[in-house]
Amino acid sequence: MSDHRHVAVKDRRVEPTDPGRRALRRAGDDEPPATQPSVRRPRGGKRKSAISAGGWVSIVMTGVLVVGTLAGYKFYRDIEGNIKRQDVEKDLGANRPPETGALNVLLVGSDSREGDANKRYGQHMQGQGERTDTIILLHVSPNRDKVTLVSFPRDSMVQAPECKNPKTGAIIPAGLKQINSTFNDGGIACTWKTIETLTQIHINHFVKVDFAGFKGIVDALGGVEICLPKDVYDKKAKLDLKKGKQIVKGETALAYVRARYALGDGSDTDRIKRQQVFMTQVMKQATSSSLLTDLGKLNDFLKAATASVTMDRNLDTGRILEIARSAGSLTEKSMTSVTVPWKPYEPKPAQVEWKQPEANELFEAIRTDVEVTPAPKASASAPARPTVKNEQVRVQVINGTGKPGLATEVAGKLAAQGFVVTHVGNASAAGGGPVPATSVRYAKKDATDGTVHADTLTARLSGERLTPAAGKTKPSDITPYPAAPATASTLTGPVVQLVIGADWKGVRVPSIPTSLKDKVIDHTTNPCQ
Known about the structure:
Residues 392-504 form the LytR/CpsA/Psr regulator C-terminal domain. The chain is of the alpha/beta class.
């Protein structure tokens, strides 16, 4: 079951940005909770940056995902009253990406100073709205066995779609703008719609979190372990920590995820990396037996987490429980984090734009992470089938759709996953026209080995699992694949054939493309470096 809804990104107005102005704007990020009011400039003037909420946004969904198997409906009903809800579905439009069975939740951090708990972080900012510095897509695989967190830099310049201002009803025209301005212009629905339009990933739900509950959440976890490569002292952020591993709670934890210049190079993208490491530690702590087996701690944790969130109306108690039960086995080893590939935006280098084709490859990986029907298990009396790796499978890719260049495009995606593509070509249905259905085929003489090699290929194709067919298709033309590896001539197994039909769903690419492997943050990342 999958239901996509966009999470809204809280935002601020886009302002002219140059390196000096940007540095001034960033300086505000490191300021501690305000005990004395400072002057906030009127709208249109320069304002201090919002606190980046990435660390505690993920805590909320982590709690939702890991405790469902331990608590019944009454438990969730008890915390239901803490959660604020918002109806945004009507503003997302009808032209949305298809569902895939995955769970995609847009996570947003709010800098609202409303309410007694939030006003201590800037009482002078009350009544001036809310923005976000954090936009994260939480992707849970259809089989609920892995989590990918994709961070979107707040300063990304993007082509946003047309939206509607939720207060005035005015139409906000489509156009080039900074991604976090979409919330200020059109609310949560506009940010949700923007991310969905840009990535073509169907989003199921949104979760917005303010920072009032952050300290309570971290304290309910017993603190979160961090590691510093050096001593850190930041007077503005009230951060004074020694080198090495340590447990942080409350204000110290908040200062850690906020700080910029005392940690890293002062950029938003560098801070994103630190927050991603923090999220992994949160996942580790929230899935530990010490929390999950202590219902008192668990109750405190969920109460703290839910007290500071807003969700879409479809993420109700029943849906939360459904998600939690299906994903109850997730641990920190199941989670990876990555930032959308970016480069300096040429007209204004202080901003960024998404680097292509790497960004689209990442979005495609998320889109094609679809549920795969397991291959039938052999009967007890049948001999065990050998395991065949991608690198052992030789493939001919035949384009039966008539779309120019598709065979070469698909061949490249298969080769990137280790398959040995030997030839590409074209074919048509009997009597002409496109081939209606995609198939994976092997020579009739290769009835045994052919099915095994073909099964390895079918596991990497999107859509319903195909049953390999005996008998190959005769192509109208076929040529050697120019990028075929030297090992192609040394392999002795059968050559299987992928015939691309009109119902082609695509290649299931890895959830993190090979080009981004060195950018991934996961449980093996050393936070001390």
